[in-house]
Specification:
- By secondary structure, the protein is mostly helical.
- It is built from 11 helices and no strands.
- It has one domain.
- α3 runs antiparallel to α6, α4 packs antiparallel against α9 and α5 runs parallel beside α9.
- The longest helix is centred in the middle third of the chain and has 28 residues.
- The radius of gyration is 19 Å and the shape is globular.
Length: about 290
């Protein structure tokens, strides 16, 4: 389920790559999370589990809402960080801190025993992510590059995003003791959709974006995949430990790399090849 969550997220991200140049990340997030929320409600209703929401303790509802807010802020922080600096620096650092924070929190608060193969597997996944993130051939951003002060700010924002994601991870893991994955997602996703919609309404400049029918279709499909990613993520926490889920859920670049070659016409490099192999080795170790 954790690997499926990473794959869904990668596929959904690839779909909106060509939309991002002319539509802001906030408005894309509104559509994606809104579609994901609708998917969660429909599947939960089809499974006959909507009634379980009435049996959910208020404490658990509060935890899920708080975790949703933490994850949403983390996502927005990550987008801001990569807007300030090169994604090849921000992405590996943010994901590395997310894995580190999650593993430490899992040991301290979730009672997970950290085995050597989980530790080595997480380290290999981190190296693989770094190689995958830095392996794409990019055009120079300018003669001066990113100023050190802005680079430091981007790293700090990325670190705060990683901490927010880890808080959300541990919180949802605690809530999973008292609720099933689908009802939990019905609480999480609509709340995030409402918060993002409120932020977009406050911003109030949606009319300046030129959105085509193809853009809308891509955002909706991406949102359905994002909903699938959220559902499988919560299910993974129901059936596994948070440190393991964090490591496996961080492998989205592993799935994104072949999509970039096949559909986005990006070129393979030795870093991408090596990163893929190392990432797979880390995943295998995590399963031991």
């Amino acid at each position: 389920m954790a690997l499926a969550s990473a794959a869904f997220w990668a596929f959904g991200s690839a779909l909106v790559k060509n939309v991002t140049p002319h539509v802001s990340a906030l408005y894309i997030s509104v559509v994606r999370v809104g579609c994901g929320a609708l998917l969660s409600v429909l599947i939960t209703a089809m499974l006959g589990q909507i009634g379980l929401l009435g049996d959910t303790p208020l404490r658990v509802v509060g935890i899920l809402l708080g975790c949703s807010l933490a994850v949403m802020l983390g996502n927005l922080g990550f987008v801001r960080a990569i807007a300030l600096d090169d994604v090849s620096r921000v992405f590996p650092v943010t994901n590395g801190l997310y894995i580190m924070f999650s593993v430490v929190a899992s040991v301290l608060f979730a009672g997970e025993t950290l085995t050597w193969y989980i530790g080595v597997g997480g380290f290999l996944v981190l190296i693989g992510i770094y190689l995958l993130a830095t392996g794409q051939r990019r055009q120079p951003v300018g003669p001066g590059g990113t100023p050190p002060r802005i680079r430091l700010l981007a790293m700090l924002i990325g670190g705060a995003a990683a901490l927010s994601w880890s808080i959300g991870l541990i919180g949802v893991n605690d809530a999973m003791k008292y609720i099933e994955p689908m009802p939990a997602n019905v609480i999480r996703m609509p709340f995030m959709a409402m918060m993002l919609t409120a932020m977009a309404a406050v911003r109030g400049d949606v009319r300046r974006y030129q959105v085509s029918r193809q853009d809308i279709v891509l955002m909706v499909l991406s949102g359905l995949l994002a909903g699938g990613s959220s559902i499988t993520f919560v299910a993974a926490l129901k059936w596994s430990e948070p440190a393991t889920v964090a490591i496996l859920n961080s492998t989205a670049p592993l799935f994104l790399a072949p999509l970039a070659f096949m559909f986005l016409h990006e070129h393979a490099t030795w870093k991408v090849m090596a990163g893929t192999i190392i990432c797979v080795a880390g995943v295998i170790l995590t399963f031991l």
